[in-house]
Amino acid sequence: MPRSRRSTNRVTMDDVAARARVSASSVSLFLRNPDAVSPRIAPRIKQAIEVLGYVPNLLAGSLAAARTRAIGVVVPSLGNAFFSATVAAMQKEFDRHGYQLLLGATEYEPGREADLVRTFLSWSPTALVVTGCRHDDETRTLLRSARAPVAEMWELGEQPFDLQVGFSHYKAGEAVARHMLEIGAKRVAFIGARMKSDVRAHQRCEGFSRSMLKAGIDVHIENVPGDASPKTGAHALADILRRMPDVDSIACSNDVIALGVLFEAQRRGLAVPQQLRVAGFGDLPFSEECVPPLTTVQPRATQIGLSIARELMERVEQPADEQEPRIVDSGFELVIRASTQRIEASQEP
């Protein structure tokens, strides 16, 4: 039996307007910003869209403005919970204004960022969001020539293209070091994963180790080549103990690695924090519930996403000649928990 031919008659905005008994301009406004439409007619428009199966042709609607209603976002990894929280917050805010995300991950591969930025620019996005402030020359040239606002997130630099929202990772490392010095750390290590490409983890390591060095403590740095994982942390602790059997404090570039350190310490009968103090970064959901609860840095990932989205929406609505580069320091918080609890002499094993 020959296949029936699917109809090519696309449902239009006029069809939706006719069914909802409103003007096409009201439907257009509803699609851009549902909250801006009268509560009396918004439900009618929504019902008409659902009944007719209307799908907006965002590309066609953007041709006159030479812009799609899309925002390109480049992150280092789709599996990283930090960036997932930031992207989710951005998506929720952009949805309110009728924009969609084009999402790509570099997987920390050099050169991948330029490929993604070039691909996104070919779609004439309303804006671009990239992670960090350190880009290769090719990416920097592409971002500088972009005819759309550019936001850099999760890091602060000196010369933003348009917008930067983030915090100093170096200072985050310093904050962990100060805390460990206060609780009496003497034999100290830092564990990070592929810190040559993960520049923000490297900055935290630098802030931590230099602060320790000022206090006369040399930090053993364990830079693992693979992905950050509990296995990474467990293997790194095993390696450190072979070199520093008397290590008493370990800072990790993220909570996932720190979790592996806690697991390995338990397997080896090392009491935390009595014999080994452990700190992470990220304040991931398990950090408060693991045993013992993990001291960590809260990077305010959701706040970064919301700030990026709101600032970009303001820039999209502003004339280009009124826009000035802007830096927003989202800050961070050191969350002290039992994994680095100060142990009094009478409590030592």
From TrEMBL:
GO MF annotation terms: DNA-binding transcription factor activity; transcription cis-regulatory region binding
Domain HTH lacI-type per the UniProt entry, residue ranges: 11-65
SUPFAM superfamilies for the chain: lambda repressor-like DNA-binding domains, Periplasmic binding protein-like I
InterPro entries: HTH_LacI, Lambda_DNA-bd_dom_sf, Peripla_BP/Lac1_sug-bd_dom, Peripla_BP_I
Pfam families: LacI, Peripla_BP_1
Gene3D superfamilies found in the cross-reference section: 3.40.50.2300, lambda repressor-like DNA-binding domains (1.10.260.40)
UniProt keyword DNA-binding, yes or no: yes
UniProt keywords, alphabetically: DNA-binding, Transcription, Transcription regulation
Alphabetical list of PANTHER family matching this protein: LACI-RELATED TRANSCRIPTIONAL REPRESSOR (PTHR30146), TRANSCRIPTIONAL REGULATOR (PTHR30146:SF33)
Name by which UniProt lists this protein: LacI family DNA-binding transcriptional regulator
Lineage: Bacteria, Pseudomonadati, Pseudomonadota, Betaproteobacteria, Burkholderiales
